[in-house]
Write a structure and sequence with these properties.
Layout: E1 2-5, E2 10-16, H1 24-42, E3 52-58, E4 61-67, H2 84-103, E5 116-118, E6 124-126, H3 131-135, H4 159-162, H5 170-185, H6 195-204, H7 219-228, H8 240-244
Antiparallel strand pairs: 1-2, 2-4, 3-4, 5-6
Helix pairs in contact: 2-5, 5-7
Length: 245
C-alpha cells in the first residue's frame, strides 16, 4: 500500500505478508522470523537498498514500512533488449548493494526485476530483503512444506535453490546474472508451462547463448553472463564485488 507517514510527513510504502499463504502452525514462526529479518534489514545502510523505516502487526498480519520509490520497477521496463552497457550501468549499483548485504551475512534469495525499484532520476533500488526467508518456515533447510523446493521465483532461482539444498550468497549472483541476461536479450533464459518445469530447466538445461538473440553482443559480455549463471556455485563469481567489477 502507498501511505502517508504523519510523523515523518512523507509518503511511504507498506508491505503486508499475506497470511492466507501460511498455515496456522507456520504463522507464529513467520511472525518471529519477520521481526528478526526486519531488524536485520533496517541495519543495511546502502544508497541502493530501499530503507526500512518501521515494522509492525495489524490484526495479526505483519507489515514493513519502507521508503516510497516513485519510478516503478525494473520489471515494467522489460520486453525488449537493452544495450549491454546500459544494462551493466543499471545493475552495477545493485551488485554493490548485494555485496554490502553479503558482507553483513545477509542473502537476498529473491533477486528479480520486480524487486528492483527505480527512483524518479532512474537510480536502481533493491527491495524485499529477507522476505523469502520469512516465508521459509517449515524447517531449517529452507524448503516449503511438502514441495522440497526453496522459496524464490523459479525464473530467477539458482539450481541449488530449486533442489532445496543449503544455499549461500552465490544464489544472488546467479539470480542477478539472469536479470542481466534478460535485460540484454529481452528474453528469460528458461521458460516452461509450470513453475516446477522452469526449476527443472534451471537445474538441467544448458544456458541458451545470449548471442543467439543479440548477434553483435561482445564475447566478453556473454562470458560474464555464462560465469554468473554457472550451474555449480563454485564455477560462478565467488563474490558479488567480483561480479560488479
Amino acid at each position: 500500500y502507498k501511505a502517508f507517514d504523519t510523523r515523518l510527513e512523507c509518503e511511504v510504502a507498506i508491505k503486508f505478508i499475506r497470511k492466507e499463504k501460511l498455515t496456522a502452525e507456520n504463522s507464529e514462526k513467520a511472525l518471529k522470523r519477520f521481526k528478526i529479518e526486519a531488524q536485520k534489514t533496517a541495519q543495511l545502510s546502502h544508497p541502493n537498498i530501499v530503507p526500512i523505516t518501521d515494522y509492525g502487526e495489524h490484526e495479526g498480519s505483519p507489515y514493513l514500512v519502507m521508503k516510497y520509490v516513485q519510478g516503478g520497477t525494473l520489471k515494467e521496463k522489460l520486453g525488449k533488449p537493452m544495450r549491454w552497457a546500459m544494462a551493466a550501468k543499471l545493475l552495477a549499483p545493485i551488485a554493490h548493494a548485494l555485496d554490502h548485504a553479503h558482507q553483513q551475512k545477509m542473502i537476498h534469495r529473491d533477486v528479480k526485476p520486480a524487486n528492483i525499484l527505480l527512483t524518479q532520476s532512474g537510480q536502481p533500488m533493491l527491495s524485499d530483503f529477507g522476505i523469502a526467508k520469512v516465508l521459509e518456515v517449515s524447517d531449517e533447510t529452507g524448503t516449503l512444506t511438502g514441495t522440497g523446493v526453496g522459496i524464490g521465483t523459479p525464473e530467477y532461482m539458482a539450481p541449488e535453490q530449486g533442489l532445496g539444498r543449503a544455499i549461500d550468497h552465490r544464489v544472488d549472483i546467479y539470480s542477478l546474472g539472469i536479470v542481466f541476461y534478460e535485460l540484454v536479450t529481452g528474453q528469460k533464459p528458461f521458460k516452461a508451462d509450470t513453475p516446477m518445469a522452469v526449476v527443472v530447466k534451471q537445474i538441467n538445461d544448458p544456458l541458451p547463448r545470449p548471442k543467439g538473440f543479440i548477434h553483435d553482443l561482445p564475447d566478453k559480455v556473454e562470458k560474464v553472463i555464462f560465469k554468473a549463471m554457472a550451474k555449480k556455485p563454485e564455477d560462478r563469481y565467488q563474490s558479488m564485488a567480483e561480479f560488479a567489477a
